[in-house]
Amino acid sequence: MISIIKRLNNLIRVPRSEETSYTAFWWGAFYGLAALSFLVMLLSGVFFRTGLPTWMMASATLLIGIIAFWLFRIIGTLLHKWISKIPAFLFALFFGTICTLILARYIRFGFPQHIYYLGFAAIIVGITFLFGSVMVLYRRTSDLIALHVLSIVASLALFITGGYYLFYQGYDPYKVSFEQTPTSLLSERGITNPGEKGKYSTQVFTYGSGTDKRRAEFRSGVKYKSKTVDASRILPEWKGSKAKWRQRYWGFGVKKFPLNGRVWMPEGKGKFPVILIVHGNHGMEEHSDPGYAYLGELLASRGFIMVSVDENFINGTWSGDFMGKEMPTRGWLLLKHLEQWKTWTNDPSHELYQKADLDNVVLAGHSRGGEAVNIAALFNKLNHFPDDANEKFDFNFGIKGIVSIAPTDKRYDRRINLENINYLSIQGSYDSDEASFFGYRQYQRITFTDTAFYFKSGLYVHGANHGQFNSVWGQYDGGAPGKYLLNIAPMMTMAEQQQIAKVYISAFAETVLHDNPGYYGLFKNAASAQDWLPKQILVNTYKDANTKSLITYEEDIDVTTGTIAGATTMGDNLKIWKESILKFRDKDTQGNNAVILGWEKDSTAKVASYKITFKSSLPIDPSSSLLFSMAQGNGDELKDKDGDKENKKKGDESSELNFQIQLMDSLGNEAVINISDVKKITPRLKVQYVKLKGLNQENYGDVWEPTMETFELPMAAFTSQKVRLDHFKSISLNFNKTEKGVLILDEIGLKNK
Question: Which residue spans of the chain are classified as CATH 2.60.120.430?
């Protein structure tokens, strides 16, 4: 056996004949390429999370790399006879290096495919010349010293440039200078900052089923023992080798899922409203539930029980995830946690007796958890599991609201339509995991049908990413080494991002669970809380049960008809006038239609306009408001119809879009407001998620997507100009304030006080 190995080794080794610059160069290249192969395999083990110690995984992949490098060189030597006249050792060396690097990528060295192969092609060339030339100079086998010095310098320049590119934070190619129209501050009305700690002392503890062999805090460290639950009907995909591995890793299977929770609870006499928050699909070996402690500490101090729910055991791992099939389980488990709290709070012998108010519950979720809370809210009202009716439901908790942070929306193969529930969704523009505002699609699927008051709101945060809403996930929306391609320079800090989350989520909880009406202004216009928030561009969308839709653009494909009976629309002197389905940056639908209006001043000096006329007078209260959902559109659509190439290049939108909104009554009285006097329209927010522009387009699509924003115009501002509301006849948008622009108009509503 030993003699066979020696013979194979002699077959693939660099010749050891009389030392020349040729042999010295290739011996140097051999050492360099071997070191590269082993290093990459070693790092593959470092990046490969299996739950085993990092040193063990790194050692294992390094050993695999050594063996693979040797075997691939042998294979290369055997193939060489039919492929090339290049020396066998040389062909074998490069073949072995390339195949080992391909193996590393297969194991876990995850760059995008073409970046990986192009990058390592350059590295292989650089390593060859660097180590080869160093060996030549070291052994003094050549008089061409300058040539080899140049080779070394060029190779080092390549590696320094590449290393700098990987580790520098990037840049912001689309800087925006924008300040919103000043408005009265909530604090000036005596309303306190919801992001500040409240009056309650708090206690922190965990509960769990005690079966989690990986996490002591849910095993021996629990304060209260919870039941296990049988999820076999909810998650039938838990089977085969995937199930065996997970069961071996966690110590439990699908029939005994634990109910593990991390609790922040106010001290004192209850009952306290309950907020459950659940993470998304981060790697199951890196536990996600501790990452919401900043919210738990705040909310408990303000009189809420907050539970960060552990669902790490159904997250993705090296053996794969459930590809969205686990989404019903994520939602169902939240309801089983509420069942456990019901048992405790109704048990006079338990320390948690009368602590939890389960008639006042908010569900919050992040990423896939942000979709799971919608599923849970729907399941809460059902009697049977829709995917297997043999699983009966009997929940009916008082879920009053949903907070959805950077959610998914298509993981579960059923669209979730919800009624009569409060809703808040938060999305960051620099979220490179869920790159579009999918929470806005769920926003569209929430309706108010009874006489109670509900509201729904969306918040788009320019500069926020996916991970910093969770302290564990952090700055990079992806794992190493691929994360080093991300463009993180334009992002806000974690402290800023979490401050926004604290203010909005706490305000939502105060509004929904403590019946505090003072924060409604925050959900309509972030400028009303600019003294509580970091200086970032925040885009709000809002609608409540007191809003009557006048125009939605959902009723038909006739551009001249409105939603309410008898309403008509008409454009005049517009370069663009069309109704269209709004789409995200990847061309997926936003779930709503809108009208797109474009104008450009021409020689006629005639003002472009868009007019909505009502057949009969509307019953309008002077204390009511008009709500408009709008966004700045793509100015590139304004192209010269006569073929002027220079104008086509310009095609840009104004950084500040402004126009008049005109109300007219049937008596001929009219009143106007400049939209910017009330609230400025946010300019298009463009982003580049990765440092390579071409890679950004390939992976994410457009640099921009429509982000709708709500504008509230008080009727009092018009009636002061003598418009008769009892004879209200029409609304006109007169585009006379900016020379050109494109406006997306989605919905017009009438909001009663």
Answer: 547-751
Q: Which of 343, 200, 339, 203 is CA-nearest to residue 276? A: 339
- The amino acid present at 290, given as its one-letter code, is P
Residues 686-698 pLDDT 10s: 999 999 888 888 8
Note the pLDDT tens digit of each residue in 123-141.
999 999 999 999 999 888 8
Angstrom distance (rounded) from CA 427 to CA 443: 12
Helix then strand then coil, in percent of the chain rounded to 5, is 35, 20, 40
pLDDT in tens, 209-251: 998 999 999 999 999 999 999 999 999 999 988 888 899 999 9
What mean pLDDT, rounded, does the chain reach? 91
pLDDT at 726 over 90: no
Angstrom distances, CA of residue 68 to CA of 72, 125, 147, 280: 6, 21, 34, 36
Whether pTM > 0.70 for this model: the answer is: yes
Q: Which two tokens stand for residue 728?
A: 């209200």
In the chain, % of residues over pLDDT 90: 73
In CATH, what class is 188-544?
A: alpha beta
Q: Encode 735-750 in three state secondary structure.
A: ECCCCEEEEEEEEEEE
d(CA 617, CA 599): 30
* Sequence-distant (≥ 6) Cβ neighbours of residue 541 within 8 angstroms: 440, 443, 457, 458, 460, 629, 708, 709, 710
CB of 570 closer than 8 Å to CB of 611: yes
Residues whose CB falls within 8 Å of the CB of residue 82, separated by 6 or more in sequence, listed in order: none
Long-range contacts, 438-441 (Cβ 8 Å, 24+): 438/371, 438/407, 438/408, 438/409, 438/410, 438/584, 439/370, 439/404, 439/406, 439/407, 439/409, 440/541, 440/590, 440/591, 440/708, 441/409, 441/589, 441/590, 441/591
**Could you give the CA distance from residue 680 to residue 711 in angstroms, rounded to a whole number?**
9
CA distance 683 to 665: 32
Alpha helices by DSSP H, listed for 422-472, are 439-444
- Measured between alpha carbons, how far is 710 from 553 in angstroms, rounded to an integer? 16
Q: Phi-psi bin for 309: left (phi > 0), alpha (psi -120 to 50), beta?
A: beta
- Cα separations (Å) of 562 from 53, 160, 517, 576, 598? 63, 61, 32, 19, 19
Q: Given this model, what pLDDT does residue 2 score?
A: 63
- What confidence score (pLDDT) does residue 11 get? 64
> Given strand 728-735, what is the order of strands in its sheet?
568-572, 608-613, 728-735, 660-665, 670-674
- DSSP letter at 533 equals S
Q: Which residues are 459's β-sheet partners? A: 426, 540
- Residue 641 in this model has a pLDDT that exceeds 70: no
Phi, psi of 400 (to 5 degrees): -95, -20
pLDDT score of 647 more than 70: no
Beta strands at 202-208 and 224-225: parallel, antiparallel or unpaired: parallel
Q: Which CATH architecture has domain 547-751?
A: Sandwich (2.60)
User: Cis before residue 271, ω within 30 degrees of 0?
Assistant: yes
User: pLDDT tens digits for 398-424?
Assistant: 999 999 999 999 899 999 999 999 999
Whole-angstrom CA distances from 383 to 27, 50, 395, 607 are 73, 39, 8, 58
Sequence ranges of the chain with CATH classification 3.40.50.1820: 188-544
Query: What DSSP string describes 667-695?
Result: TS-EEEEEHHHH-PPPPP-----BSSHHH
